[in-house]
Amino acid sequence: MKKLLCIFTVFFAVPKSSQEKPEVTMHPEFKQVYSGDTVLLKCSGAGSVEWLLNGTRIPSSGHLYIPAISTNESGSYSCKRAGGESEPKIITVLEGLPIATLSIKSGQPVIAKGDSVVMELHVHSGLEGWYCKVYKGGRVRRINMLKNLMTRSNSYVQFQPKALNDTENPALYWCEHKTDNERSNPISIRITDLMVMLESFPDPAIEGKELKLKCYVWGDPVIRKTPVELRTKSPLKLRNSRSKVPYLRQSSP
Ligand SMILES: *[C@@H]1O[C@H](CO)[C@@H](O)[C@H](O)[C@H]1NC(C)=O
Ligand SMILES: *[C@@H]1O[C@H](CO)[C@@H](O)[C@H](O)[C@H]1NC(C)=O
Ligand SMILES: *[C@@H]1O[C@H](CO)[C@@H](O)[C@H](O)[C@H]1NC(C)=O
């Protein structure tokens, strides 16, 4: 009797994970995006990423962080990663303002690690039904507010969010009404270890209008004597601690 030796070769079709289509997600996921909103776009997957707006490459590495989006930045956003291109994410930026205002009452939008800020929510028609949220470290969390302050007769409330750590950078805060589909503008807070930091005020930059930038220098007071240079395409020398940059044109950060 002959013995038959059968060898089965099984081929597994293993999809290479690197060829999976990346996906663009927007944080916070607002139904309506208004001019001046802070928008954070993330591309799923790992490795180097390329961002496209209407098919044209836009400079960014990692996440696409738009501190104050303008109506001109409406369009279809997609990302390319490891040879795959995502489905487009259409963002239509509307003129106008959300009915509630969230602002930084004390502190700065860029803070040192361990620091925190005080925020204020203002809703003209009263705070009843409003609550605030934060997107940080890849998750949305609700911020606990004192219930007895969130009433119809109260139109302002201040709160101090928790200090942030490295994995929660940037953190985006906003407030919503529980039924009315209404929200506030978002505020982004970033932490830094840098000793020099340049920051713009959270208002959107408008072509032809003055834009305030603040440059902070920490540490040894001697550093302050070093001339500070503001680089745009060519460096601008600032002579005083407060200088005006005469002309602003729209460009990418
Ligand atoms: C937006 O685009 C329009 C038309 O292309 C232009 O007139 C306007 O100045 C732009 N606004 C900003 C803020 O760049
Ligand atoms: C992208 O395309 C849309 C639709 O054609 C257009 O309305 C929008 O202005 C474009 N955005 C940019 C930044 O070119
Ligand atoms: C950062 O904070 C989150 C909670 O918000 C915590 O889960 C995480 O462990 C912290 N990470 C570090 C490095 O401290």
TrEMBL record:
<dbReference type="GO" id="GO:0004888">
    <property type="term" value="F:transmembrane signaling receptor activity"/>
</dbReference>
<feature type="signal peptide">
    <location>
        <begin position="1"/>
        <end position="19"/>
    </location>
</feature>
<dbReference type="InterPro" id="IPR050488">
    <property type="entry name" value="Ig_Fc_receptor"/>
</dbReference>
<dbReference type="Pfam" id="PF13895">
    <property type="entry name" value="Ig_2"/>
</dbReference>
<dbReference type="GO" id="GO:0006955">
    <property type="term" value="P:immune response"/>
</dbReference>
<dbReference type="InterPro" id="IPR003599">
    <property type="entry name" value="Ig_sub"/>
</dbReference>
<protein>
    <recommendedName>
        <fullName>Ig-like domain-containing protein</fullName>
    </recommendedName>
</protein>
<feature type="domain" description="Ig-like">
    <location>
        <begin position="22"/>
        <end position="92"/>
    </location>
</feature>
<dbReference type="InterPro" id="IPR036179">
    <property type="entry name" value="Ig-like_dom_sf"/>
</dbReference>
<dbReference type="GO" id="GO:0009897">
    <property type="term" value="C:external side of plasma membrane"/>
</dbReference>
<dbReference type="InterPro" id="IPR007110">
    <property type="entry name" value="Ig-like_dom"/>
</dbReference>
<keyword id="KW-1015">Disulfide bond</keyword>
<dbReference type="GO" id="GO:0007166">
    <property type="term" value="P:cell surface receptor signaling pathway"/>
</dbReference>
<keyword id="KW-0732">Signal</keyword>
<dbReference type="InterPro" id="IPR013783">
    <property type="entry name" value="Ig-like_fold"/>
</dbReference>
